[in-house]
Amino acid sequence: MVSPEVEIQASASLITKIQTQYCMLYGKNLILATKPYTQEFRSKSWAYVISTFSLLLIFLSVTTFVPNIYVKIPCGILVGLLVVRSFVIYHDYEHHSILQKSFIARVIMTIFGIYILAPASIWKRSHDYHHNHNSKLFTADIGSFPIVTKRKFFAMSKSNRFMYLAIRHPLNILFGYITIFALGMCVRSFLSSPKKHYDSLLALIIHIVGSVLVIHYFGWITWLLAVYVPFFIACGLGTHFFDIDVHNMLYFAPFGLLFNAIAFGATLIYFLLSSKDILAVGHNGAEYFALIFFVLCGTSIVTSFNTLLMLFLGIEIISIPLYILTGAAKRDLKSNEASLKYFLMGAFSTGLMLLGIAFLYGATPNGSFFFWMTWL
Question: Are the beta carbons of 90 and 242 closer than 8 angstroms?
Fold first, then answer.
């Protein structure tokens, strides 16, 4: 028979053990608990660098040199995802967390920084500003966005309010390749300090010259799948890492993400099964794929909208490329007639939809689609 004192002592010991293992730590205990993770295993760091950059070069080479379009498409998407993974490694290196005092690592990271339009000087400036001014009411700089109070926002001019909302818009995330990395990280940095950020101009020139050479020697389709699509994917995700506030315009529910996955898979299957359609396009293959990707972008917005404004933008992004694709066969009268009828019907339906959206915005105090559903 165990005495009550022994049972109480055993219970207290068990509770202490559970608290030590599973409960949140604070202060000095938290710092001491994270100390083992501050040590770098250099062999593991090199293993991640070599494997990631090797795969990036392999899939980039396949996308560029293999003529089969059905191989190019999945490899181009994988290049974009590998660029994101490589950027995470680049981020850790620039934070002085891995592979310090290594000349080879420095060369690799310098080349990669120029490749992704984020050279070391720009990265350091933007990231240092980002960490030093996080959640503060400061003037914006590269790597951060201005934060103002509601009272100050309404005191701004219309142009300043437009810019304040524009840089937080989901389309700014979607086209981060142009808006954030090419214009913001390179052009704006060089204009602000040409001597300090000369590498931004160098990165932009190399990027443009490389694109021209790829188009000249390998064609538009190769440029689209080896350059544009990977950067579109990687820079879109990279822009989202800046935590741009979309003001609840998009709502990423599990059902919407599932529908997005189905749409992406169906598009890939369509590419694999539509060889005759692709051959019929002839020399306009790049435009053909670009229009389909625009339709896919609009589908992603429509599946995740939370305001009718985003629904309208998503439908228009879907519709306009479809107008063009419908009339792609210029010498076919039926194709021209179908495109014209589709355009007219879409224009009338867009007008009616905008009229209804205007009535809802005027009748309700909230812009959320879910609020409207409840209110109606």
Answer: no
